[in-house]
Amino acid sequence: MIVSLEAWLFTFVRKASLSAGASAGLSLGLYRDLAVSVDPDGADAWADPGMMVTDATVGAPPDIGNGKGQDWGLAPLNPLMLRRHAYAPVIAALRASMRHSGVLRIDHAMGLMQLWWVPQGAGAAAGTYVAYPFEDLRRILALESRRQCCRVIAEDLGTVPAGFSETLHESGILSYRLLLFARDKAGDFLPPEAYPELATASFSTHDIATLRGFWLGRDLEWRRTLDLYPSAQHAQNDGAERRRDRRRLLAALIAAGALDRDAAQRLLPKEDEPIYERALAEAVHRFLAQSNARLVLMQIEDALAELEQPNLPTTVNEHPNWRRKLALALDQILHDPAFLRLAAAIGTARRAKEQ
Fold first, then answer.
1. Domain-terminating residue out of 128, 163, 198
2. Same domain, yes or no, for 213 and 316?
3. What is the residue-averaged pLDDT of the chain?
4. 24-33 pLDDT, tens per residue?
5. Which domain holds residue 314?
6. 131, 163, 195 — which closes off a domain?
């Protein structure tokens, strides 16, 4: 009887939560995020130390965006202990995260298959991949998604194992498609029709430059200032590539009919003198709204034309991660003319796509 009562209360609270969200205009409900791991000094590690690996941290190997690799300072879960305890911590985390949400994003979803462990005291590049029971975790994720009636988005960005995204696709899990990374072999941006349907499309994420920051090269300035490049040559190469990327982006927007040539000329009158206008944000999101992706996201920083990105991976105190205030308060944002124009551009393009 106790189990039945708990199940009834859970169902009642969840329905009430979703109903309140729907009444407020949230057709999909709350969009929440599941972190890749926990702080080694936090409550989770303290409560269950046997489940955590204390002499290593989680990160990512060197790649194009982070030449020295990344160390996020998070304690990895022990895959052997996970299996021994029938994945109880993962199941509990999924249920808690999905309970009041309609969409759950799995941060660094490759952690379902493998995680880059960095030995304590070593640099991020000295790490190695440790395998996780992917099939078990994938099925648990699908089962809990079904039980909680919660959609799942996998952040499959960065160094993605072969076949990983395709396997998630078979489970009905949405992939993550960023305009910045959606390219062909020549480096040109893919057209909207090339985006897969089972995907969530966005310009960038909280870990990447904002649209304005990308356009003006603010992220490159931070990397040079904080010595995040492996060499001066890497910094020069990034600068040259950014100049090419500005031209590539304008070409893709024009080809898709999302931006006219006069506006493009205003945005890039000279090779090394980019000018940011809100018209660029409207064009980029109009482009994304024309794609086949099932969901289209708009970063709040891009809606407000913020220059700085919220978080710069590989930094802790060097960069003010998660500490900057937005230019406007939430109630002001919802009535901001520029925000309303941007939202209208997305809505118009999306409705035209669905017709």
1. 163
2. yes
3. 91
4. 677 888 999 9
5. 174-355
6. 163
Q: Give dist(CA 311, CA 82) in Å, integer.
A: 30
- In terms of Cβ atoms closer than 10 Å to its own Cβ (0-12, 13-18, 19+), residue 146 is exposed
- Specify the number of domains making up the chain: 2
Return the pLDDT at 174: 94
Mean pLDDT of 45-74: 89
Residue that has been written with the tokens 């086949």 in this structure:
292
Asked whether residue 321 is domain-assigned, the answer is yes
Burial group, residue 188, by CB count within 10 angstroms (0-12, 13-18, 19+): middle
Q: What is the C-alpha separation between 242 and 224, in angstroms, rounded?
A: 14
Q: Taking a C-beta distance cutoff of 8 angstroms, is the pair 53, 130 a contact?
A: no
pTM above 0.70, yes or no: yes
Q: How far apart are CA 185 and CA 309, in angstroms?
A: 27
User: Would you say residue 340 lies in a domain?
Assistant: yes
**Is 38 inside any structural domain?**
yes
SS3 letters across the chain: CHHHHHHHHHHHHHHHHHHHHHHCCCCCCCEEEECCCECCCCHHHHHCHHHECCCEEEEECCCCCCCCCEEEEEECECHHHHHHCCCHHHHHHHHHHHCCCCEEEECCHHHHCEEEEEECCCCHHHCEEEECCHHHHHHHHHHHHHHHCCEEEECCCCCCCCCHHHHHHHCCCEEEEECCCCECCCCCECCHHHCCCCEEEECCCCCCCCHHHHHHCHHHHHHHHCCCCCCHHHHHHHHHHHHHHHHHHHHHHHHCCCCCHHHHHHHCCCCCCCCCCHHHHHHHHHHHHCCCCCEECCCHHHHCCCCCCCCCCCCCCCCCCCCCCCCCCHHHHCCCHHHHHHHHHHHHHHHHHHC
User: For the residues 167-194, what does the mean pLDDT come to?
Assistant: 94
